[in-house]
Amino acid sequence: MTALPPLVEPGPPLTRSQVERYSRHLLLDGMGDLGQRRLAAARVAVLGAGGLGSPVLTYLAAAGVGTLGVVDDDTVEVSNLQRQTLYSPADVGRRKVDVAAEVLRRQNPEIVVVEHPVRLSPGTVTTVLAGYDLVIDGTDNFDTRFLISDACTLLGLPCVWGSVLEFAGQVSVFWTGRGPVYRDLYPAPPPGGSVLSCAEAGVVGAVCAVVGSTMATEAVKVICGVGEPLVGRLFVYDALAASVRTIHLRPDPTRPVVRSLPASPRSTPARRTPARIGDEISAMELRALLTGDRPPVVVDIREPAELSFGVLPGAGYVPLADIVSGRAVEQLRAAAGRTGVVLYCKTGARSRLALDALRAAGVDEVRHLAGGIVGWRADVDPGLPGY
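Request: output the structure for the sequence above.
Response:
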């Protein structure tokens, strides 16, 4: 892959103060005065103001990107502070876009920060992205990533994408007409709950910084037309091995052409059985059963590390993998035959997968806890720690 033409035309001549502020950019071969003026004229939408969005926004604001759109509908939580460096304990409970905009405007008063406190959906995504030159996808779930990819395809926008999990991260630049798009790397979303999120598996905060700063660098390269952007390549970072490798990607000629956005973010049906009456039990219903004469067998199916955040009263432990693989089916069949089984995870997605696996194996007296331990914490035991 060779260097691409600059994404945007240069803005007005730099002022004396801008020359001083951005002097380290002006010294770089291939960037110089024109490159800095292109950055000043660029409009970049950053989707997600979290672990990846924090370093991306910080470095692009410092670099002098003229307009930064901050897209996030979430509020700051205590668990964010381990990696989302835009925020402090005093910001807990506030909207992320509000805090991010304040921080970025203090950091560089010359740039424009546009706040988009919205949840991206088929009805909002093209409206939010319209008018931007470049999209940076730092979101944390598959459905939204596919929606963003399809929207960028329809709008013809380049998309710098990144993801992190545990000790690893990935970065690429997806651009219809120039190279592969997200669907060439991942053709369809996995079934809900089948892939752990950072909230379930964890992530090293500094890994977010490495991946986020790489994403910001790719944005600068695309805007200024310098170097070889990661178009058609996947950058893979492994912090445990202290290694980096690059995998070449090609467009899939059999991939369906994106002509419109789906009615909902999930572009392929979830591969699981439809919900039925009796599949779910609420936290309040389970609490009542646990105080009765024949309480059900409660089974925690989360990852071992998640157990340190608390378990439900009297719960046993069976890993999700043992249920899906069939290794624990007979064990749970016996328990279900006595008093019934209630499965739970963090939010209910993984326990639904386990429920489907048991039902497919003929185990009928089993339900799962709607909302998982998060719902239990909200409705029954607020003393449990959140994560």
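Confidence is low (pLDDT under 50) at residues 265-277.
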